[in-house]
């Protein structure tokens, strides 16, 4: 191993470290956006509860064991590529029949606009959370590469000495 290979490893380590810092920043921004969307959704739920009364928006409207079966409108799928990288994707369905029922209908036939706003904010938060999970996966892969290159660099420097 010569000096040129050690320099290439150091350059790659620098690039990967910068990539990791960029991914950390992106993950933080996505999580902050998701948190803000969740807070906004909770605020709109509270407004809806205030408008309709505390018993109109409560856990009593949620399905129980005796409720009819239904499927979620949005499902998170995970997949692994040929290199072992994990990826998360959202799949959304339209509420067109009894199987895919819009959960907003649990709160009445004509729910207030605030309930629609809350639903949209929660959907946006879910999208940001899935994006953050994908960024976190990339970050973990980058950290593994950094550790591998650091080990190779240590080997090169110890055998050189």
Characteristic key phrases:
161 residues; mainly alpha; two-stranded antiparallel sheet; 2 helices; 9% strand
Question: What would you say this structure looks like, in words?
Answer:
The chain has helices spanning 3-52, 113-160; strands at residues 74-80, 86-92. The chain is mostly helical. The protein has one domain (3-160). The protein has a two-stranded antiparallel sheet with strand order 1-2. β1 (74-80) and β2 form a beta hairpin. α1 packs antiparallel against α2. The chain is elongated, with a radius of gyration of 24 Å. 12% of the residues are buried. The mean pLDDT is 87.
Note the topology.
Elements: H1 3-52, E1 74-80, E2 86-92, H2 113-160
Antiparallel strand pairs: 1-2
Taken as a percent bin, the fraction of beta residues is 5-15%
Please give the order of strands in the largest beta sheet: 1-2
- Structure annotation, total helices: 2
Q: Report the biggest beta sheet as strand number plus sense, adding barrel if it closes.
A: 2 strands, antiparallel
Structural class based on helices, strands and sheet pairing? mainly alpha
Organism: Hypothenemus hampei (Coffee berry borer)
Protein name: Vacuolar ATPase assembly protein VMA22
């Amino acid at each position: 191993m010569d000096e040129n290979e050690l320099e290439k490893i150091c350059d790659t380590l620098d690039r990967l470290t910068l990539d990791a810092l960029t991914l950390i920043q992106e993950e933080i921004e996505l999580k902050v956006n998701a948190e803000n969307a969740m807070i906004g959704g909770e605020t709109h739920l509270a407004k809806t509860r205030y408008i309709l009364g505390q018993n109109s928006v409560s856990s009593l409207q949620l399905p129980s064991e005796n409720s009819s079966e239904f499927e979620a409108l949005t499902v998170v799928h995970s997949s692994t590529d040929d290199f072992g990288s994990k990826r998360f994707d959202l799949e959304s369905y339209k509420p067109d029949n009894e199987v895919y029922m819009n959960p907003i209908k649990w709160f009445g036939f004509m729910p207030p606009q605030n309930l629609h706003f809350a639903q949209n904010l929660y959907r946006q938060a879910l999208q940001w959370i899935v994006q953050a999970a994908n960024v976190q996966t990339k970050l973990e892969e980058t950290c593994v590469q950094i550790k591998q290159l650091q080990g190779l660099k240590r080997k090169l420097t110890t055998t050189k000495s």
